[in-house]
Amino acid sequence: CFHNLERSIFCTQGKTMTSHNMLINGSWVPASDSAVDEIRSPYSSELVGTVPRATLADVNTAITAAHEGFRVWSRTPAHQRVAILNAAAALADQRAPEIARIIAAENGKSLIEAQGEAGRSGDIIRLSAFEGSQLYGDTLPLDANRGTGFDKIGFTIRQPVGVVVAISPFNYPALLVLHKIAPALAAGNSVVLKPARATPLTALAIAQCFVDAGLPEGVLNVVTGQGGVLGGALVSDSRVRKISFTGSTAVGEHIAASAGIKKLSLELGASGPVIVAADADIEAAATSIALGGYINAGQVCISAQRIIVDESIHDDFVAALTPKVEAIRVGDPFADGTMVGCLINRGEADRVRQALEGAVSSGARLVTGGEQSGAVIAPAIVTNVDPQSSLAQDELFGPAVAISTSENFGHAIHLANSTAYGLGAGVFTNNTGNSIRAMREIESGVIHINWTQLWRADLMPYGGLKSSGIGKEGPRSAVEEMTEIKTIIMHGTPWETTS
Question: Are 475 and 127 contacting, i.e. CB atoms less than 8 angstroms apart?
Fold first, then answer.
């Protein structure tokens, strides 16, 4: 069992009845008005635990604590920060099995998927610790400026921005929390984390790793509760210097409008295309898409949602894909052999089913799947999808792929670029020329050749174009975005060189 200081024990069967507190200024505390939210399994509706429903007063207390914590942490030498973060990483490794069960219980993803997510947590912290210790600057060739001699030396230095507000989504409650807080802490910032209301328990378990590793009070704070109530106060506070948000484009636009003058990283919506060219390896494409379209019940911003298949191979591709999708075992996240669990709640499952029914009523064909049982949707394949329809243009965030056809490779690229989004894209082709053209012409922040976009190395730059957001994640990129550059000029007495 997994102890969390004053919090209750998490039982190893994934069934909990625990009360949890939030982290403010180094202490685990209830909401100032003692209100709580119940966290229930999206699969069984069983009570997983309770967390505080933070108030605006709690937000103010957390930001105040972070503001003071920054004074200490930003003056802590990098090697000491690295030691604390590496200790937290070791604890995350040790506690990965328990964290995985928390993820599966509150998120509804299969335990297999949850174990993979939890198992990456320590590595993200270690990567971030290293990158945060490497804050190099540049020397400036000032004498290249007309009228300037050798009497001046210029260079740049990097320093942490200050208080970072991190707002994370439900779909990867460990990884997307750590991709925000670990680089921020590594660079010397303090953090106020607001995890998704549906999945706060994972965030609290991760925060406990940092507390137990010796992170000073106030450096990491976690407030739980309603985003609609807390979000405005978090993003608009003048003491906050950086916001890192992952979520919908609509909410991202609201944050950008209300944040004021501060640094923003916004990882937003998507409708990810996958091109399957006429010369593609059909079997390899089908295997990859059977993973990329359905992992985490399709609740991934880089899910393979829109499949654009050359019309000459359409039937062969669908024939190869269908048995692979029908073999995906869905259901109870804790059952042996379950590959894909449920959506985050019944309402989301209703929405996805209605989207599939709407596409079919408009002329598309449901090849397989789409049946609903509570929050579970059977993995679906829909063909004959109009590329301009809602199923192709809007983010589905569910376990289905929408197949459209293209006349040729150029037409496929046109269709790939036809949405407002540009986060991830995949291309299957055995033609080098097609690959190079795709790299240059597809409007996407990440492009995969001969795989779908649902693949991510935690160290790589990650972020989108167009309405998919601004800024990059990945430890090195995030550390850069969570630091500021100062230019330093040292003036001396003018002097002349002599032979």
Answer: yes
pLDDT at residue 481 greater than cutoff 80: yes
Q: Positive or negative, the Cα torsion across 249, 252, 257, 261?
A: negative
Give the H/E segment covering residue 203: helix 200-212
CA pseudo-torsion sign 141, 143, 147, 151:
positive
- Cβ atoms of 5 and 28 within 8 Å: the answer is yes
According to DSSP, the residues that pair with 154 across neighbouring strands are: 140, 489
What's the CA gap between 194 and 212, in Å, rounded? 20
pLDDT tens digits, 274-304: 999 999 999 999 999 999 999 999 999 999 9
Q: CA-to-CA distance for 74 and 87, rounded, in angstroms?
A: 19
Distance CA(165)–CA(187), nearest Å, equals: 14
Tokens encoding 184: 């921020």
CA 53, chain centre distance (Å): 23
The predicted structure's pLDDT at residue 17: 54
> Is 253 annotated in the active site?
no
3-class secondary structure, 213: coil
Report how far residue 237's alpha carbon sits from residue 260's, in angstroms, rounded to the nearest whole number.
9
**CA gap 180, 478 in Å, rounded:** 8
267 given a catalytic annotation? yes
Check 98, 106, 131, 301 and give the catalytic one. 301
Q: What is the pTM of this model?
A: 0.94
Q: Which of 98, 106, 267, 395 is catalytic?
A: 267
- Per-residue pLDDT tens over the stretch 292-349: 999 999 999 999 999 999 999 999 999 999 999 999 999 999 999 999 999 999 999 9
